[in-house]
Amino acid sequence: MEESFQKLMGMEFLITNVSLVSTVFTVLAILAGVLGYLYAPYWGVRRVPGPRTIPFLGHLPLLAKHGPDVFSVLAKQYGPIFRFHMGRQPLIIVADAELCREVGIKKFKDIPNRSIPSPISGSPLHQKGLFFTRDTRWSTMRNTILSVYQPSYLASLVPTMQSFIESATQNLDDSSQSSKKEDITFSNLSLRLATDVIGQAAFGVNFGLSKSQSISDSISKIDNGQDKNDDEVSDFINQHIYSTTQLKMDLSGSVSIILGLLVPILQEPFRQILKRIPGTMDRKVDRTNQNLSSRLDGIVMKRMNDSERGSKNFLSLIMNARESEGVAKSVFTPDYISAVTYEHLLAGSATTSFTLSSAVYLISGHPEVESKLLAEIDGFGPHDQIPTAHDLQHKFPYLEQVIKEAMRFYMVSPLVARETSREVEVGGYLLPKGTWVWLALGVLAKDPKNFPEPEKFKPERFDPNGKEEKQRHPYAFIPFGIGPRACIGQKFSLQELKLSLIHLYRKYVFRHSPNMETPLELEYGIVLNFKKGVKLTVIKRT
Ligand code: HEM
Q1: For the chain, N or C: smaller number of CB within 10 Å?
Q2: Ligand 1 within 6 A of 199 CB?
Q3: Closest ligand 1 atom to 494 CA
Q4: How far apart, in whole angstroms, are the C-alpha atoms of residue 99 and residue 428?
Q5: What is the Å distance from ligand 1's center to 487 Cα?
Q6: Per UniProt, where does heme bind (predicted)?
C-alpha cells in the first residue's frame, strides 16, 4: 500500500516536473520568438555603426529629443553611413554625397524601389501612386508619365499658372494699403495657390481656392464646365489636407500607425479593429481615404467615358497615352490612374507651397538679396510682360540661385526612402535584401564641407561661376532626389516657383511680421511644414 502510494507520489512529482519544464520551455520559446522578431531586422545590419537601441522603441526617443536635426547629430557622431531604428525597423541612413550617388545611380538596379513606411502601408490610395509602386510596374508607369511631361506641355501651362498666381495675390493689395498694415499668413496663400495650380494641371479641375473670395464662397467648375457645389470642393480639399497631415512619421499618428512603428505585425489587425470603432483616429483616416478614393474614382470614370477630354491636364494625357499604348493599358487600370493623379495633388501642393513660402520668408530677412533680385526682375522688361517658359529657364539666373538656396536652407523633403532588392554592398557594409536605405538629403545640404557657413542664407553660393559651386560635389545638393527615381515634378515646380516670385516681387516686398516666432518653427510630417505658418507684412512697391 505504502509502496504504491510512493509510486503515485513519484509519478505526480514527475508529471509536475514535466509540466513545469514544458511551461518553462514554452515561456522560453515565446521569449525567443519575441526577441527573434524584435532583433531579426537588426541582425543583418548590426555591423553598420549606430547608437544603442531600446527594444520596441529603437531610436525614437532620439527623434523626440532632437527633432528633424537628429540625423545631422548622428552623422557627426557615426559618420556618413549609420543605423537608425524607427521602432523595430532599422534604417540605414546615408549622409554623404558620394554614397548617395552609389545608392541612387551606380547601384540603382539593386536598390530600385522605395521602402513603404508604416503610415502609408494601410492606404492603397498612396501605395498605387508612382512613389510606392515597384519594379516593372513602376518603370512602365514612369515611362508613360514622363512621355506626357514634354517641355511643350510645361510651356503650355504658363498662362494657367499665371492666372492662378494673379488671382491668388489680388488680395495682397488690400493688405498692403490698409492703414493698419495687416499681416498675412503667406503660407496659407501659397498652399491655396499651389493646390489650385496642380488641381488644374493634374485633374483639369479648378478648386477655386485662389479666388479673392473665401473657400466657401468660391465657385468652381469641374470638368466639362459643370458646376459642382462649393462644399464639395472645399470638402475635398479639407479631406486632402487631413489625409496629408495624418501621415506623420513620428509618434503622433493613429494608434495603428504607432503600433506599425513598434510592432509592425500588429498594425493591420489593429487597424481593421480600430477602424470599426467610432471616435478613433483610425476610423477617421479610413473614412477619409475611402471618401477621397471614391471621389477620385468618380472623376476618373467620368473622364474615361469622355470622348472629348482634350489634352490640357495630366489625367487626360495619361488616359490618352493609355489608350494609345497597349502595355500602359494593363498597368494603368482606373485605380492606378486615380492614385497617380491624387499623388500629383499631394506631391505637387505641399512641397511647392512650402518652398515658395520659405523663399519669400528668407528674402524678407535679407534686404541685400531682395534688392539684387528686384534689379534682375525689373531688368527683364515691362511688368505686364509675362515671361515664357524659355525666359524662365534662361533669363533669371539670380532668381534661380535664390530658389536653390531657399531649398537648401529649408529642405522640404529631407529624406528619400529606398529599399534593397538583393544583397548589396554600400559604403563597405554588406546589406541584406529588404534593407531600408534612406538618403539624408537634408544632412548633405547643411554639410560645411560642401556649403561653408551652412547656417547663412547666401544665394551666391550657387553662382555657376563662383568658386563654391565649382568645388562642390555634384550630388551634394539634391532636393529633388537622385537617379532614375528622382522627382518627375522638378521642372513643373521650378516653373511655378519662378513665375510666382516674379509676379510677387514686381508688385510687392515683404517683411517678417512682429507676430512671427524666431527662429521659424518646423513640423516633421511626410514632408516638412511650418508649425505656425509664415506671417509677413506686405508693402506695395511704388
Ligand atoms: C519643390 C517641389 C518638390 C520637391 C522638393 C520634390 C521632391 C521630391 C523628392 C525628394 C522625391 C524623391 C526622389 C528620389 O527618390 O530620388 C520626389 C519624388 C516624386 N515627386 Fe516630387 N517634389 C516636388 C514637386 C513635385 C511635383 C510638382 C510633382 C508632380 C507634378 C511631384 C511628383 C513626384 C513623384 C510622382 C515622385 C515619385 C517619382 C518616382 O518614384 O518615380 N513632385 N519628389
Answers
A1: C
A2: no
A3: 1
A4: 10
A5: 3
A6: 487
Pocket test for ligand 1, best of 340, 487, 529 (most atoms within 8 A of CB): 487
487 is in an annotated binding site: yes
Task: Give the closest residue to 430 by CA, choosing from 43, 28, 79.
Answer: 43
Is 40 a domain residue?
no
482 lines ligand 1 (CB under 6 A): yes
How far, in Å, CA of 69 to CA of 75, rounded? 10
- Please name the residues in contact with 99: beta carbons below 8 A apart, sequence gap of 6 or more: 80, 81, 426, 427
Instruction: Answer whether residue 180 is part of any domain.
Output: yes
CA distances from 453 to 448, 458, 468 (A): 6, 9, 11
CB-based burial, 85-124: b 16+ in 10 Å, e otherwise: bbbbbbbbbbbbbebbbbbbeebeebbbbbbbbbbbbbbe
225 sits in the region (left: phi over 0; alpha: psi -120 to 50; else beta) called left
CA of 133 relative to ligand 1 center, distance in Å: 14
**What span, in angstroms and rounded, lies between the C-alpha atoms of 23 and 33?**
15
Tell me whether residue 52 is in a domain.
no
Q: C-alpha distances in angstroms, 217 versus 63, 194, 226, 502?
A: 42, 19, 17, 28
Ligand 1 atom at shortest distance from the alpha carbon of 478: 10
The predicted-structure confidence for 162-202, as pLDDT tens digits, reads as follows: 998 998 888 787 766 655 566 899 998 998 888 888 888 88
User: What CATH number corresponds to the domain at position 321?
Assistant: 1.10.630.10
Query: How high is the ipTM of this complex?
Result: 0.99
Asked whether 480 lines ligand 1 (CB < 6 A), one says yes
Question: What is the C-alpha separation between 87 and 244, in angstroms, rounded?
Answer: 22
Number of domains in the chain: 1
User: In terms of Cα–Cα distance, which of 96, 103, 85, 102 is closest to 43?
Assistant: 85
| pLDDT tens sequence across 303-362 | 888 777 777 788 888 888 877 766 667 788 888 888 888 888 888 888 999 999 999 999
| 265-276 CB burial, b ≥16 within 10 A, e <16 | eebeebbeebbe
Regarding the beta carbon of 479 and ligand 1, being less than 6 Å apart is answered: yes
- Beta carbons of 45 and 92 less than 8 angstroms apart: yes
Question: 430: how many CB neighbours lie within 10 A of its CB?
Answer: 13
Residue 352 Cβ < 6 Å to ligand 1: yes
Distance 313 CA to ligand 1 centre (A): 18
Residues of the chain with pLDDT under 70: 1-6, 8-11, 13-15, 117-125, 175-182, 211-262, 325-328, 525-526
Going by C-alpha positions, the residue among 198, 254, 238 that lies closest to residue 500 is 198
> What number of CA atoms fall less than 13 Å from residue 502's CA on the CB side?
32
Residue in the structure block whose three cell numbers are 537628429: 70
Ligand 1, atom 36: closest residue by C-alpha? 487
Domain containing 153 equals: 59-540
C-alpha angle 175-180-185 in degrees, rounded to nearest 5: 45
Q: How far is the CA of 490 from the centre of ligand 1 (A)?
A: 7
Give 374-405 pLDDT, tens digit per residue.
999 999 999 999 999 999 999 999 999 999 99
